[in-house]
Write a structure and sequence with these properties.
The complex is a heterodimer of chains A (305) and B (534). Chain A is built from 11 helices and no strands. With 305 residues, chain A is mainly alpha-helical. The N and C termini of chain A lie close together (7 Å). Chain B has 534 residues and is α+β, with helices and mostly antiparallel strands. Chain B has helices spanning 2-20, 45-54, 109-120, 138-142, 172-176, 186-192, 246-255, 269-274, 278-281, 305-313, 317-325, 346-349, 357-366, 386-403, 414-424, 440-448, 462-473, 477-494, and strands spanning 25-30, 59-61, 68-70, 73-79, 84-89, 96-97, 153-157, 160-164, 203-204, 208-214, 218-223, 237-242, 260-261, 282-295, 330-331, 378-383, 407-412, 428-434, 498-510, 514-515, 530-531. In chain B, helix 16 (440-448) runs antiparallel to helix 17 (462-473) and helix 17 packs antiparallel against helix 18. The longest helix of chain B has 19 residues, at 2-20. Chain B is globular. The two termini of chain B are 40 Å apart. The chains are: A mainly alpha (305), B alpha+beta (534). At the A-B interface, helix 2, helix 4, helix 6 and helix 9 of A face helix 7 and helix 15 of B.
């Protein structure tokens, strides 16, 4: 197991280099520079600015300089926001996005999985059918429609929660709820399908025949095995929730890192583009590794060597 | 000693506030994170709004009339022999910072000289330096071929600054009212470098101090007790949220979290106008910006002036305003908007091309394409945005219906779009312009002179260049006005270089307890506002 983890972590290095090289080439092939402006800058000024940010160096040198800095965790200055470095932007805003993502993930898992178990256990009853309708709505309604709708109900009409921005636990509720609905529904449906399949297995019948209580059959035997397909989607779910947070952050005015993914490209802010892309890639690699480790923990038949 | 005096003032103010009751707080939303609060570097409206509250300049504008009023300078005069404007400054203006460590130091003419030269310095790389090229030695210094000592800005003593120009520009006081001529705090800038604009470092002299700035989240300004006119500043604190999404801002306004919504979404305009409460809170004020469709006369069939006249005559501006824009904008047949010196009322004087479908069809027929037969497809390009797309579809459809021609509407991302328009503009492309300073020179010369980098149409008319160059140096306002009128006739009517579409308006929602003004040039004067008990 340890060797497996070590090998995966070593594989991260070439993956990051490929991602960074691709991103670098792509962003430099887009027309326009960070200094393209409606009011055209004098040529001498533009040259000065490009020299300041080493944009006149040959591309391979720029790439090398950037990766050298990246390894030492120095992500460079932001070209668009002169008073801030990329490290500062990440340090201030990444925790906000992670908090929002984590709470949304917890909502999705803690509401979705039990809903799926309940539906499976009470299959073909009213509870089952209504849960699956709710799940279908959750998968179909995009956050860009759901967010303002929740604001309208809970903030404007009922006045239970604040409209937008960030700061108190009350501010997290609506955005996290909006962000979680898609995966809440997916967790519910997959848990239900998986549970239904597992409860048909022979060892479940044996357990019941032995007289084990129904709740123990469901939660200890069936659920643990049903969890494997659920875990499969949990890793990408967390990564998706972080990208989906971009829209939710925009709707609710949350100072997260999401908007920088888009604005950095519009601004041609090369250091921010590189940093945000690479950190996201690292996150996905890490989440996938966690998922693989959890397989081994959940199913003793799975061994990595 | 100075610190004791300031401390006593703060205590007195707080006591006064406590006696008077609640501190007056304005809740505002900034539609974007300010990219920079450095006066030399800021280019966008959000940054300028905050800068206006924190820094004073030599002069200021009257919000309603755009007249130039004293601010740091109490008076100024022009000497024709030396082509020099001399400004006489107040002696009671002080620098302030949040912690009162660099406070109490007087603002002097030397700070004005430093501020202008820093703006022009090549290392600063300011985008607005070009506006001050009329100052002697400015262009040479800014492009790296001259030195700072040769720039025509001199502090003669602590209270007098002399600015020497390349030519007598009658409009120079309007530039003295811009942030470009603001004194800057040399000590703070040299000590903190790029970080001098952070709240713990920044040193300012205006009606408000930057007290707090959580990037992308919030910004707080508090009244500057050392401001020279603090007695007239009524609002104690301005708390700004930073929310980009216009519909969310609208919801915040309706929930009472904001006192003003300066950008209500277009989709809500009908609902606002028919709502009994909101319709009374909606105000429309002129905004000094013009929207145009540029025409690339180098690309056939637009090289035929009759084709350009046909296109210009088949834009139904009023319907566009009534059904698409919905903001009571004003149709434009000329370029410079009302409120700017040099404006001519094209609509009533018959300059430019009003909506006249019959005339349009006739122009097209005269050009050799009766009924649009044989007319090649024309590309209309805008930068990617829902708003611009809707306008393009409306106008493009109008051309197709009236003239029977085919229009290909495309869009490009903003950065790519600018690069495209710069290198090889499409046949028809959308552009706008907002006033940097309230004078026709900023509209005619800075945009459409043949050597201007903002002249995407690549309009090249020696007659036009001569008119605007002469207007720049002319001192008699009546003569200047006539020169600009001739220039408008030439570019909009005779040569049809572009199609002016509309003059912008501000649409803003304001709670009834806010007593406010509207700044046509942008950048509200919060020092003149008040908040009533509510």
């Amino acid at each position: 197991m340890f060797q497996f983890i070590l090998r995966r972590m070593l594989w991260t290095i070439p993956v990051i280099f490929v991602v960074s090289a691709l991103t670098f080439v792509l962003m430099h092939s887009v027309p326009g520079s960070p200094f393209t402006r409606e009011r055209a800058l004098p040529a001498a000024i533009q040259k000065n600015l490009e020299a300041k940010y080493h944009l006149n160096d040959p591309l391979w040198k720029q790439y090398g300089d950037y990766m050298w800095g990246f390894i030492r965790l120095d992500f460079g200055p932001s070209i668009a926001y002169r008073a801030r470095t990329v490290n500062e932007i990440l340090a201030q805003q990444w925790p906000v996005t992670m908090t929002l993502g984590a709470v949304a993930f917890v909502f999705a898992a803690c509401l979705g999985i039990p809903l799926g178990i309940l539906s499976a256990v009470k299959q073909n009853t009213l509870i089952d059918h209504s849960s699956m309708v709710v799940a279908m709505l959750g998968v179909s309604i995009p956050s860009i429609a759901l967010g303002p709708f929740l604001i309208w109900i809970f903030a404007l009409k009922l006045k239970w929660l604040p409209v937008a921005t960030w700061g108190t636990p009350a501010h997290i509720v609506l955005p996290a709820l909006t962000l979680s609905t898609f995966y809440l529904s997916r967790f519910a449906r997959i848990t239900r399908a998986s549970m239904l399949q597992v409860t048909r297995e022979e060892y479940i019948v044996t357990a019941r025949a032995k007289g084990v209580r129904e709740s123990v059959v469901n939660l200890k035997h069936a659920f643990r095995n049903a969890l494997i397909p659920v875990t499969t989607i949990a890793g990408p779910a967390f990564a998706d929730i972080l990208t989906g947070s971009l829209v939710v952050e925009q709707i609710f005015g949350i100072p997260g890192i999401g908007k920088y993914y888009v604005t950095s490209i519009a601004n041609r802010d090369y250091p921010v583009i590189m940093a945000t892309t690479l950190i996201f890639a690292l996150l996905i690699i890490f989440m996938n590794l966690l998922v693989d480790i959890s397989y081994a923990l959940l199913d003793p038949r799975i061994r990595y060597n | 000693m100075k610190k004791m005096w300031l401390f006593a003032l703060v205590v007195a103010l707080l006591a006064g506030v406590a006696v008077a009751g609640q501190a007056k707080t304005l809740h505002w939303n900034l539609g974007a994170e300010p990219p920079s609060l450095d006066p030399s570097l800021a280019t966008d409206t959000t940054s300028h709004l905050i800068l206006k509250q924190m820094f004073i300049s030599l002069c200021q504008f009257d919000d309603a009339t755009m007249a130039v009023l004293p601010d740091l300078a109490t008076s100024w005069e022009f000497d024709a022999a030396t082509v020099t404007w001399t400004f006489h400054l107040r002696d009671d203006v002080r620098w302030t910072d949040r912690n009162w460590t660099l406070s109490g130091i007087p603002v002097t003419a030397g700070d004005v000289e430093y501020g202008i030269k820093r703006l022009l310095a090549p290392e600063t790389a300011s985008e607005y330096a070009y506006v001050l090229y009329l100052i002697k030695g400015a262009e040479a210094y800014n492009t790296g071929v001259g030195s700072a000592d040769d720039v025509g800005v001199k502090a003669l003593d602590n209270q007098t600054v002399a600015i020497t120009l390349n030519f007598p520009a009658g409009y120079f006081p309007t530039m003295a009212a811009l942030w470009l001529c603001a004194p800057l705090p040399k000590v703070a800038i040299e000590r903190y470098g790029d970080k001098w604009t952070e709240p713990e470092n920044i040193v300012t002299n205006g009606p408000y101090i930057l007290s707090e700035w959580v990037h992308d989240a919030s910004l707080v300004l508090v009244k500057n007790v050392a401001y020279y006119d603090v007695a007239n500043v009524k609002i104690d604190e301005v708390r700004c949220t930073i929310v980009v999404e216009a519909s969310t801002v609208m919801a915040m306004y309706e929930a009472g979290d904001l006192d003003v919504d300066d950008n209500p979404p277009l989709e809500d305009m009908d609902r606002i106008k028919s709502d009994p409460v909101l319709s009374l809170e909606l105000a429309q004020a002129p905004r000094l910006c013009t929207y145009r469709y540029g025409l690339n006369a180098a690309k056939p069939p637009l090289d035929n002036i009759l084709v350009r006249k046909a296109l210009a005559s088949s834009v139904d501006r009023q319907s566009l305003i009534d059904y698409v824009l919905k903001g009571n904008q004003r149709p434009a047949q000329t370029w410079t908007p009302p409120g700017i010196f040099g404006y001519v009322d094209g609509v009533s004087l018959g300059i430019g091309y009003p909506y006249d479908p019959e005339a349009a069809k006739q122009y097209l027929a005269d050009a050799g394409y009766p009924g649009g037969v044989g007319f090649p497809e024309v590309t209309l390009m805008v930068n990617t945005s829902q708003g611009h797309q809707k306008i393009a579809q409306f106008i493009g459809q109008g051309w197709m219906d009236t003239l029977g021609i085919k229009i290909n509407i495309t869009n490009q991302e903003w950065g790519v779009y600018l690069a495209t328009c710069h290198a090889d503009a499409p046949q028809v492309f959308r552009m706008g312009w907002c006033a940097d300073y309230p004078d026709g020179n900023n509209w005619m010369n800075d945009v459409f002179h043949s050597g201007s980098g903002n002249n995407y149409e690549k309009y090249d008319s020696p007659a036009f260049d001569a008119l605007v160059e002469q207007a720049a140096v002319e001192t008699d306002p009546a003569v200047r006005l006539d020169l600009y009128k001739q220039a408008e006739i030439l570019i909009c009517d005779t040569d049809v270089a572009f199609i002016p579409i509309y003059f912008y308006t501000f649409n803003q929602l304001t709670k009834p307890y806010v007593v406010r003004t509207f700044a046509a040039i942008g950048g509200e004067s919060w020092k003149n506002w008040d908040i009533l008990d509510h």
